[in-house]
Every structure is written in structure tokens, then in C-alpha cells.
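Input C-alpha cells:
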């Protein structure tokens, strides 16, 4: 299937419209437009960009998808027909990649496909949760409510991740500054100390000799250092894409002392919120758990949720299935138990998600407060080593001169 940009005139209103349509060739595209009630004026095949720069420019951000979802929900809720809503959102969208996707969805919908079928063609934009809620919304006639739930959850997810990134930005900057200072000292200052000792025909102290060795290697083989760093980064990136790498990263996030509680609350809140939205739209508990597990974003937690699914298949209730599971916090089975007794599991999971989201906000603030003194200690140790290795030898030379 090829993609064509078109300019056409609406046969009923006479209004000029622009959009995109997918077809085998230009002739078929024109035929589809006529069947949809348009008179084609121009049809141009779009070229697909294949290089890295094009892929980067065409990347659709989570924010773009959230804006589309919120605007689309508002228009559907106001009673506007599906096609008209998509057309209005496409006209208002400022992101060119997102605009192309919306126009393609519009073309598919006007060609007879359901919204779920049209969106399913873009899994890199609309994940399983998105598709499941769209399908449930279309089936129950509550598409606007499903879209609102999606927009709410996506915005909460974006906020949580933004808060976590914000908490880690400051220490990352400090560490970069520390590394830059160390590199400057090793490359510029340490050689001066070596020259001074060489002129005085004295042996370098052990710590200073160690730094001098590093300095000489970096200055003499800087290209090897750059290549080694680049290869290491490439290896880490490629390893992180493998199943083993994903598992290591997942285990690391759940066991790093300072961040263990933070990630546990993030994953549990994400699981509970996703399950709540799916169950509230009539999705079966097995499908809800499967999609929620995939939405968590951690393979270790996902495997625990899969165990919960197997327990439910054996006839156990959700609350009992979640008890004493690794990486599932105690509040979730407790709230699920209350939900089972009251017949409101989705509401209880939503309340558990809210509790974890509030605890997550508090933990992010706590970590931000703790990181600063920890970094100060690290910086003090590094500076202390530099002082011992660089300044103390100079002080010893001065003392020898004064006593001599």
C-alpha cells in the first residue's frame, strides 16, 4: 500500500479539503476519494524517508499523542461525527508526523474501517492499552469516555516520568561536572607536577604516579579512549535491547537501594491504573491483566502478573492471586479484596493507584533531598584524592626546599 497526499473538493458542501489516503496506486486513490464524496483536484504519492534523520524527525512523541487524544475526546463528546472529528483534529495538529497518522486513520475510517482497525496499523503510536480501550469504547458506544480515560492515564504517566527525570537531572549534571574537573586535572595539572619532580630528580608518590600514568595514556592514546567509549556505549545500547539485557535492567531498577521503592510504586500504580481503566470499560479480567502487565514496562513485574493470571484461571480470586507476589505491593491485594466484596474492583484498583501516585510524588521529593548530600560526599572524596595526589607532593617539595 502506498500513501498519497490529496487536495479535493467536497461534492456536498463544495469545501476544499486536504488529506492523505492509502491505496495501491494513484488511480485507486482517486476512485476511493470519489466513493467518499470528494472530487479529486490533485493526488501526489508521498516519499518515505529512510535515513536516521528522517526517522528522528518523524518520531511521534507521547505529548503529541496525548494532545490528539484529548482533542479527539472533546469533539466526540460534543457529538461531532467520527470523520469530522478526525478531520478537525488533523487540521489543528502542529506535529507533522502525528498529522500524517491522523490523516491516514481518517482515510481508513472513511474507507469503511473501524477506528480500532485504523489505529491498529500504527503500533508504534497506539499501544495495546490504547487499542483495547478504543475497541471497548466502540463496542459499548462510550468512545468519548474511553478516550478521556486514555488521555488522563497518559498525562499521569507522562507527569510521573517527567518528575523522575527531573529528580535525576540534577545529580547527572553534577556528575558530569565532577568528571570534567577530573579530566582537566588529569590532562592539564598532573603533567605539571610530573615535570616538576623530573626537574628535581625525585620519585613521584604512589597516588601521583597513578594519575600520571592515566594522564600519559589519555594524552598519548586519546583516539583509542574515544573509540573504546563509543564501542562501550554501543554495546550497552545493543545489550539493553536483548531479552537478557532487558531482564538485567529490570532487576537493577527493582533492587537499587535508593530507587527500589520509587520504581516499585511506579510500576504498581501503572498496573493498577491500567487495570482500572480496562475493567471499567468491560474488558475481561484476563485481558485486562495481560494488557496491564505489558503496560507496566518491567519484564520482572510482568512475569509476576502472568502468574496472577494463571492463578485466576485455576479459580482463585484476584486478591488471593496477588498476595505474596514479588514486586506487587501489599495494598493492591487488600484493595482488590474490598473490590471483590463490593463488586467494584475497578474503583478499588483506582484508589490503590492514587495512593501509590501520591507516595511516588513524596518519594521523588525525598530522593531529590537525599541525593545532594550523597553527591557532596562523593565530590569531597574525589577532591580529597586529587589534593593528596597533586597538592601534597608540591607541599612536600616546598618543605624540603625550606629545610634544605
Amino acid at each position: 500500500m502506498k500513501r498519497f497526499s490529496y487536495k479535493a473538493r467536497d461534492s456536498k458542501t463544495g469545501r476544499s479539503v486536504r488529506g492523505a489516503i492509502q491505496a495501491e496506486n494513484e488511480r485507486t486513490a482517486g476512485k476511493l476519494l470519489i466513493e467518499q464524496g470528494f472530487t479529486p483536484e490533485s493526488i501526489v504519492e508521498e516519499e518515505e524517508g529512510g535515513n536516521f534523520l528522517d526517522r528522528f524527525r518523524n518520531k511521534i512523541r507521547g505529548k503529541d499523542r496525548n494532545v490528539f487524544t484529548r482533542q479527539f475526546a472533546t469533539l466526540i463528546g460534543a457529538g461531532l461525527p467520527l470523520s469530522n472529528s478526525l478531520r478537525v483534529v488533523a487540521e489543528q495538529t502542529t506535529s507533522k508526523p502525528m498529522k500524517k497518522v491522523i490523516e491516514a486513520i481518517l482515510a481508513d475510517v472513511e474507507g469503511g474501517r473501524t477506528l480500532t482497525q485504523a489505529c491498529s496499523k500504527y503500533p508504534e503510536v497506539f499501544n495495546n492499552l490504547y487499542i483495547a480501550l478504543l475497541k471497548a469504547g466502540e463496542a459499548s458506544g462510550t468512545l468519548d469516555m474511553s478516550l478521556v480515560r486514555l488521555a488522563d492515564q497518559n498525562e499521569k504517566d507522562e507527569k510521573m516520568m517527567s518528575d523522575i527525570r527531573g529528580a535525576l537531572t540534577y545529580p547527572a549534571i553534577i556528575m558530569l561536572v565532577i568528571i570534567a574537573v577530573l579530566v582537566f586535572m588529569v590532562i592539564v595539572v598532573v603533567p605539571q607536577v610530573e615535570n616538576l619532580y623530573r626537574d628535581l630528580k625525585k620519585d613521584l608518590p604512589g597516588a601521583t604516579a597513578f594519575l600520571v600514568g592515566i594522564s600519559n595514556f589519555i594524552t598519548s592514546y586519546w583516539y583509542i579512549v574515544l573509540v573504546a567509549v563509543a564501542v562501550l556505549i554501543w554495546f550497552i545500547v545493543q545489550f539493553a535491547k536483548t531479552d537478557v539485557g532487558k531482564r538485567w535492567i529490570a532487576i537493577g531498577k527493582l533492587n537499587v537501594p535508593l530507587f527500589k521503592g520509587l520504581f516499585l510504586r511506579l510500576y504498581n500504580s501503572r498496573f493498577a491504573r491500567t487495570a482500572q481503566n480496562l475493567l471499567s470499560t468491560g474488558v475481561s479480567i484476563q485481558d485486562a491483566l495481560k494488557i496491564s502487565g505489558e503496560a507496566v514496562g518491567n519484564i520482572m513485574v510482568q512475569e509476576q502478573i502472568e502468574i496472577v493470571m494463571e492463578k485466576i484461571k485455576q479459580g482463585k480470586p484476584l486478591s488471593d492471586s496477588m498476595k505474596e507476589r514479588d514486586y506487587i505491593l501489599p495494598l493492591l491485594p487488600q484493595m482488590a479484596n474490598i473490590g471483590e466484596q463490593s463488586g467494584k474492583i475497578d474503583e478499588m484498583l483506582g484508589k490503590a493507584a492514587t495512593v501509590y501516585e501520591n507516595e511516588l510524588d513524596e518519594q521523588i521529593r525525598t530522593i531529590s533531598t537525599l541525593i545532594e548530600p550523597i553527591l557532596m560526599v562523593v565530590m569531597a572524596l574525589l577532591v580529597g584524592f586529587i589534593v593528596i595526589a597533586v597538592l601534597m607532593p608540591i607541599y612536600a617539595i616546598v618543605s624540603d626546599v625550606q629545610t634544605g
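The longest strand covers residues 2-10. The chain is about 75% helix and 5% strand.
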